[in-house]
Every structure is written in structure tokens, then in C-alpha cells.
Amino acid sequence: MNSIDMRLNPLFHRAGFEKNGLFELPMLKKVNLNIDNIRMIPLSKTKQNDTAEHCKFGVHCFEDDYRMTSLYNNPEKSLRKLSQYAFLCTPDYSTYSDMDIWRQLESVAHNRWVGAFWQSRDLIAVPTISWSDKRSFDFCFDAIEQGSDVAIGMIGCKNNKKGFLYGYDAMLERINPGKILCVGNPFKEMRGNIIIIPDEYPRRAVV
User: Is the distance from CB of 86 to CB of 197 less than 8 angstroms?
Assistant: First the structure.
């Protein structure tokens, strides 16, 4: 592929979606799920031609980053498999506070782009929200339509409860989410319409 071909490749520019925020992130449309008996499986447990029972589940992406790389790099590849499921939560690419801020921004941008791509293919894509410290607040809550259902994960946050709750309250203020799908056990101080999703395939957090 020469330089002209590269520049004409849609996956080079990643354009075509409505943009929002200081960094013009791809905008995710509002999602309002039916909460009756919501169950979820992690991305790594999805498979082609899954069972009818599993296909009633949603899919979350609270996984190691390497398991989600292809969702951004080769987004068409997994469409047929993922379209079987009731809904998808956008990839939880890492936003650790010890990462350079440009890397955290990149992770959030990839999260939003994958979600916008899924929505453009008529899949139900629930925004997954993550943050680190206050520096990330300049972008980590952008490009989510007000009142949308969102997803959060509790893996690893037990080590910095105060910081997590600070970001959580900022999320409530900025997004005003409808329902909050919480994979794992929430802190008792967390407010909002929280729907606890049992982590049926728990893994240990990397600390």
C-alpha cells in the first residue's frame, strides 16, 4: 500500500462520525436498555455461533487491552460474531494515572470510535466510561449523549477508592446517565440508578 492508498483508507482518517468535545471525539448516541434480567459475558468468552441462551446476554470489555486490540485495528472482523448478542459495551482501553495523558486520550478516542462504528452498523453499543485522575476529566466524559445508559467496571478501583469516587461523581455530573451497568460490586457511596451485573468470570486485577 502506497502513501496515497493509505490516506484514502477510511481506517486511516477514522472520520465520518459526529464529533464532540475539545478533542472532537466520535459521538455515541444515547442508549436506553431494557433492564429485565440483564446478564453479561466478557469479550473473551464470545464465540461464533454461540448458544441461544448466551446470545441473550450483553458483552462487556473489562479485559486486558491485548484482547481488544482487533476491535479497533480490524473492526469488521468481529462484527458477525458480536452481532449475535443483545448489546455490546465499548472497549475499556486502559486509562491508568501513570500513563502519559496522550495515551489516556488515545484510549478514550479508541473507545468512542469503536462504539460509533458499532452503532453505525446498527448494533446496540453502551458507552463504557473510565477515568484516571483529574487530568483525564478534560476528555474522558466527552462524546456521550446526556442521559445515556453507561457501563463501568470495578476491577482495580478498590486500591484507590477516593480517586475512583471523585471521578464517578464527575461522571454523574457530566453525563447524567440513565442506568449505570456496574460489573462487580459497587461502593456503598456510589449514587445513581446502578444495575449490579455479577462478574461471572472474575479475574484478579493487576496492581
Answer: no
* Residue ranges per structural domain of the chain: 36-197
Q: Residue 53 — φ and ψ, nearest 5°?
A: -65, -45
Residue 205, pLDDT > 50, answer: no
Q: Is the pTM of this model over 0.85?
A: yes
18 secondary structure, DSSP code: -
The DSSP-derived string for 140-197 is: TT-SB-TT--EEEE-TTGGGGHHHHHHHHHHHHHHH--S-EEEESPPPTT--S-EEEE
Contact between 141 and 131 under an 8 Å Cβ cutoff? The reply is yes
CA dihedral of residues 123, 126, 132, 133 (deg, nearest 10): 130
Task: Count other Cβ atoms within 10 Å, centred on residue 43.
Answer: 19
